Amino acid sequence: MSHRAPGADRLPALAAPGGELDRLVREGVRAVGAGAVWAVGDAAGTLGGGSHGRLGLGPYAELEPGPDTLYDLASLTKIVALWPCAGVLRQSGRLPLDEPLGRWWPPAAGHPVGAVTARGLLAHTAGMLPYTRFESLYGPEPAAIRAGVIAAPVARAPGTAVEYTDRAAVLLGYLVEDLGGAPLDVLAERWAWHPLGMADTRYGPLGAALTARTAPTEYEARAGGHLRGVVHDPSARLLGGVSGNAGAFSTARDLARFLTALLAPPPGLLWGEPWIRESLREQTGGLRPARGLSWLYAPGTEPADGTFVHYGFTGTGFWVSPRLGRWALLLTNKVHYDRLTQPLTDLRNAFRRAVFG
After folding, report:
1. Which of 11, 44, 118, 250 has its CA 20 to 30 A from that of 221?
2. Nearest Cα to 80, choosing from 314, 251, 291?
């Protein structure tokens, strides 16, 4: 059930220090257990934001999050890195969205994924296997994982169901690298982060100076401590930290630039207006849950509301609504504390209702 969205005239007051959003997040982090950074804005930039709580347990309890705290984006990588690169290739005519991969991308020929389309991968309707399990299936070597992902069976006929899976983004990452002629981290920096002035955004592992302002994620026995500046996602870690599904780190400050650009693409952005417009509309043919290209319609809203979201497993999330002309972000490192999702889901939904209805 969607709720009436606040008007644009109310947004600055909502986002003001001590305003409704500030109170909502401050109270929410008590239930969530993790600190949080939030911001809200429109096509002109950030209207307001704040941060609450602590970065973690033990030594991290001395540290407070802020707009320059780096977060492991987890699956927001699919939006911040992979999706703009796919857009550049699409707009330059190198990425056909509806031609089966096997007809034009040689590695896919003769494999089940040869029947899949790039649009299906972006909309999560390609029928890819719903799990990764890369190390147990293919071993620890990136080349063997690539070969395994490309040769894997599909779980169901393409176009018959919406099933979110990291495999779609991993495969699309390989495709983007082949078409772009460079590793995904290089392409994302070249095509998305540098043009938007996102100076803090990068794939890990991070150097010492950046790690010192990074939110820690989960305790990892192999690492002998909490992961910090090293990607939490095990698939991306196997791939050296750079993958289509996860691996990027960013700050609220940088993500505000990114989200603002979705509403007001700067001139010369190679994945600008046509790609953003095409992606932020329904691409799942009436199948549910409805999705755009890479983006999900926000749970609790109707597709007609036009509010899109993406979440990251570590505790990150952001929303955008071209219809309302606004965006919002809420970054936490929830997995540092536990994997109980309901308190964070409740906070995310309350935050989304307050900003977008």
Report:
1. 250
2. 251
